[in-house]
Amino acid sequence: MKSPILIFLLLLAVITVSAQPYKRPSTLNPNSGYSNVNELAGGFGLGITSEDYARHFAGFTTTHGYQLNLFGLNVKSNLFGGLGTGILVYNGGLLFPLYGDFRFTWNRTKPTPFIFGRSGLLINPDDFDHGTRQFINLGGGIRLRLNERFTASFSPGIMVQMGNLVPRDAFIDFKLGLAFKP
Prior knowledge:
By secondary structure, this protein is mainly beta. Helices cover 10% and strands 58% of the residues.
């Protein structure tokens, strides 16, 4: 009868006693994770600007996604991919963007260059069937790291939008952003 109790106490002691404190395992990507990018956006039309939704726009966008840092692989860069939405006020009315956003940043020094690609829909609430457009937005910019959680950015680019019954329009656009990473 003493043997089972003695074995139980011995197993309990081995399981619960640890000689060293628990340390979280190291990862290759200690700074990877959720990130949020909020931007003020504006643009000026190229080519024929007499049509509605072709002269200029201004608005706000927000993108939520995942930032993957590659520092553990001895590459000082990171990738960001996310989904976003917002509101853009054009010379012809409102459009609501719904898009995917991808960014590549070279290093984490104070001023850091990056490139981006953004593509999706510009939804027209007044004429959903014929006024909704597709768009692609490509460009680059400079990102300034403010602290471990916040970065500011400025990024010019080229945006092209097209639809079924609407002409293709091109814009030079500018974004001023603030990114947050918890």
